[in-house]
Amino acid sequence: MESLFSAMIVLLLVSLSCFTSSEARYSNNGNITVKWDLMNWTPDGYVAVVTAYNYQKQRSVPGWTMSWRWTKKEVIWSTVGAQTTEQGDCSKFKFNIPHSCIRKPIVVDLLPGTPYNQQIANCCKNGILKPGLESSFQLAVGNAGTSSKTARMPVNFTFTAPKQQYICGPTKNVRPTRFITADKRRITRALMTWNITCVFHKAT
After folding, report:
1. SS3 of residue 26 by DSSP
2. Where, by residue number, does the polypeptide cross the bilayer (predicted)?
3. Which of 8, 72, 102, 169, CA to CA, is 20 to 30 A from 184?
């Protein structure tokens, strides 16, 4: 329940905030950049907002699919703005059942018209990501580290779309993302930020 409450708080903060990280906003390397922002700690993990930025000038993404591999025994308690394609074996959990127990989850965007309480800013476009725009979702991750010293970056990222192949580099620990409130009177920042760069490989 505490993890769910924390996730709801982060959802509200992100809905009222905008991304202000200049190093990403003004990047123009013709790639897909994924930012994994840890927003707060929970009793057994953290809540993160994951955002994919399309820095390709003339190439839209016609429905993205994202995947990675956990390096510990992490589970996804809940998602907002996206879902995993499979839950996996969560039989060892007796009461609260995770959204996903798969070590290499596959995540897809939600459809337009998704109920508002299941949305986050910049979600729910069926994975369509036009040049210069972004797509986001939120994860509550459990069985994970609960501090900057114990949380582990996911690895082996993949980013795909129909008739498009991308090659993703390693996950990197970068300067935490900064957020500014809608009234522009307060700046906050992520606890940690991990960055993944995916380069277009070929059309299929």
Report:
1. coil
2. none
3. 8
Q: Residue 126 carries which side chain, given as an amino acid letter?
A: N
Residue with tokens 């070590």: 103
Kindly tell me the burial class for residue 1, based on how many C-beta atoms sit within 10 Å of its own C-beta (0-12, 13-18, 19 or more).
exposed
CA-based nearest residue to 38, from 25, 47, 30:
47
What is the value of pTM for the model shown?
A: 0.86
Paired residues of 52 in beta bridges = 34, 135
* Nearest Cα to Cα of residue 50 among 82, 77, 22, 75: 82
Cβ neighbours of residue 162 closer than 8 Å, sequence gap 6 or more: 62, 63
pLDDT digits (tens, 9 = 90+) for 88-123: 999 999 999 999 999 999 999 999 999 999 999 999
- Give residue 99's region: left, alpha or beta (phi > 0; psi -120 to 50): alpha
